[in-house]
Structures are given as structure tokens and as C-alpha cells.
Amino acid sequence: MSIEDVSWILGSLIDNSKVRIIVQGPALCGKTTTILKCLKSSKKKFAYLDVLTLFGNPTIQTVNILEKYIRNGFLLFIDNIEVIFPCSDPDFLLVERFLSKKPNLIAACRDISEINPFIIQYFDDCLKMDQPRSETVQKTDNVSFDDIGGSSLAKELVLMMASWCVVHNNEIQKWGLKPPSGAMLYGPPGTGKTLLAKAAATACHCKFFSISIPDLLRCEVGESEKRLTKVFECARADSPSIVFIDEIQALFGRRSERKSDSNRLVVQLFTQLDASAGKLVFCLAATNAIEAVDPALLQPGRFEEIIEIGLPNQKEREEIIRVALKTIQHEDNIEMMVENFSSITDGYSASDIVGICQKAAISSLIKGDPVLKYSDIIEEVKRETLKRLKK
């Protein structure tokens, strides 16, 4: 069920004289928040009880806390009830005394099979909540490797590693091998690292989850870790998938040089990478400062392959120009344009070259020319060169 379905059903059941509902759902699916919203909008007084509330004070027995709220007519909401009343090693005295009071009860759990069977029988309604689709899942805009000029070796490596993990996973495991879990794309800005990740997702028919610095920056303690966990939970639930972390050195740098909150985030990333092993989730990361990345991230089983994407050589620049001009109306002498243009853009990145083509086309459009002229490209290259000299 979706969050909306569960909210609607809870709203209709909470006002009954007898309430015995359990909501089952994966971690971070929103079940606790949904139940609390429904309770707050109802007219009944309720008590939210979690593991800390019931077991946090060793001087007070759990059963006494429960009986106090039941005696005062509270509707109980027990979160993570499988921890309070576990199937393994149960406290039968606690179960018996609790059930004998016949409380009005709403509970939330991850897996109903982990709850004591006597507690399960007490519930009249069981609602199963689905994992919501993450807002971090992005469209790849059908980017293919044909849309990326140059970087032929990098394209080969990225596709090979991603396909081993999410497409040929079974074949790899039959050989007794562990499929690769991630790769690090390393190179200066504008060399097409993000496009390579999107193209790999398109080629492998995967969902694409992107994590950037603003996604993880949260003021509240622990919120960044929760956000990171949610992305990987959604990626595993929606596998096969590719998770892409841009500018990874900004938040996952060397722990010896960072504050404790950043260290927690690095440790949480380790946990999620390990949890995603063998789950058809491949993680790609991009950085332009490989020396700033925590060395533990570059170990086997994590980002085990470093794929360098440098500035394009002349042949690669020619490919980039052809790709950039594919969608632009231009003069017929394309080969002359490509050869001359590539020869005067040594040291330019792929995004620099595409940007020059776009700006030159806009100049031709403003002047009223029917097509992009090579002379406008030359003028734009001159402007870009002057900008670089001033820096």
C-alpha cells in the first residue's frame, strides 16, 4: 500500500471503539510518520512508545509503563514492536500481562514474522506499506554512449564494470567471483563524468539515483546519514540500479582531516556499500581530487576501480565536436570545421567545447544567419581564450 492508502485506512479505523492495527513496512518507508499524523488528527489521546521509552530506564519495569498508559485510557502506538515482543527469546510474563489488559493498540514493524505469535494474533488489521519511490531517482534522458564524444577507454571500463554487477551478476557468481560494487571516476571538471554514469544506466536498463552535496547537507544531527541510507534503501528496492555520488571528496574525504559528523557519514557510506553487495546495485562516484578521498573507500568491495578521465586529445576533441554539432544547423563544410576547431582547442574540456558550439550558434542566430558559421566558432574561441588569459 502507498502512504495515502495507509493514511486513509488508518483514519477510518482509529475512531473505532476497539483499535488493534499493525503496520508493516521496510525501513524509512514513512510508516511511523504516517501513523503519528493520523493519531494527531484523531480525537483520541495516545502514547507513542518506542524501545528507548520502554527499556531506557532499568529501574522501571516495561510492563508497569504499559499498564500505566492503558489504565489511563491511552491508545498505545508501539514503534518497532518486534524488538519489544520478539519471536525469539520472548518474555512470556510480559506478553501475558500486556494482553490481559486488552489495550487499544497500533504497532509498527519491519517484519511481522519477527514478532511473538501471541502478539500477532491480537491484531485485527494488518496493513503492509510499500517502499515509496525516492525523489532522488532521476531520469537519464536516454543518454547513451553515442552521445559522449571521446573517452573511449573510460566508456569501455564503466560499461564493463556496471554490466558485471547488474546484468551478468549470476554468471559472475557461478564462477565463485564477487561482482564489482563500485568505481571511481577521476578527472578535471567538464570531462563528462556524470554523463558517463547516466549512459551506463541507460545501457544496462537500470534506475539512476544521483546523490549530490545539497542532497546530504542537513542541519539536524543524523539527518544526513538518514538521507544517505534512504537513497541506498530505495536503490536496493528498485534494483537493478546505479547510484551516482558527485564530488565525493566534499563529504567523504579523509576522516583524519574531518569533523566527527563527516566521519559518521563516511562510516554510513561504508555500511551501505557493504549492504548493497550482490543486490544488483552498482555505485559510481566522481571526483576531481582523488587524493582527498578517504583511502578506505578505494579498497576492494567498495570503489575498487579508479577510472581516469582526462582532457581530450585532438582525435577525442573531433568526436566531441561532431556530437555537439549533430543537433545544430551548420555549414556544409563539416570536416574542415571539425579539423580546424579541434586543433585550436588544445587543453579544453568536453563541456568547454560544447559550450563554445552553443554560444557560437546563438551568435549566428542573433545575427540572422540561417546556419552556424565557422567564423562565429572562431570568434567564440577567441573570447574564451581571452577569458583564460585574464584568470
Please describe what this structure looks like:
By secondary structure, the chain is an alpha/beta fold. The protein has 3 domains: 3-128, Rossmann fold (3-Layer(aba) Sandwich), CATH 3.40.50.300; 137-308, Rossmann fold (3-Layer(aba) Sandwich); 314-390, Helicase, Ruva Protein, domain 3, CATH 1.10.8. Helix content is 46%, strand content 13%. The protein is built from 17 helices and 11 strands. Strands 6-8-9-10-7-11 form a 6-stranded mixed sheet, with helices on both faces. Helix 1 (3-14) packs parallel to helix 2, helix 12 (223-237) runs parallel beside helix 13 and helix 14 packs across helix 16. The longest helix has 18 residues, at 350-367. The protein is elongated. The model has no long low-confidence stretch (mean pLDDT 84).
Describe, in short, the structure shown:
The protein has 391 residues and is α/β, with parallel strands linked by helices.
Question: What's the structural blueprint in terms of helices and strands?
Answer:
Layout (H helix, E strand, L loop, with lengths): L2 H12 L5 E5 L6 H11 L4 E4 L1 H5 L6 H10 L3 E5 L1 H4 L7 H9 L4 E5 L7 H6 L2 E4 L8 E2 L13 H15 L2 H6 L7 E5 L6 H11 L3 E5 L1 H4 L6 H15 L3 E5 L14 H16 L5 E7 L17 E4 L5 H12 L8 H10 L6 H18 L6 H17 L1
Parallel strand pairs: 1-4, 1-5, 2-3, 3-4, 7-10, 7-11, 8-9, 9-10
Antiparallel strand pairs: 6-8
Helix pairs in contact: 1-2, 8-10, 12-13, 14-15, 14-16, 16-17
Kindly list the characteristics that best describe this protein.
alpha/beta; 13% strand; five-stranded parallel sheet; 17 helices; Rossmann fold; Helicase, Ruva Protein, domain 3; 11 strands; six-stranded mixed sheet; 391 residues
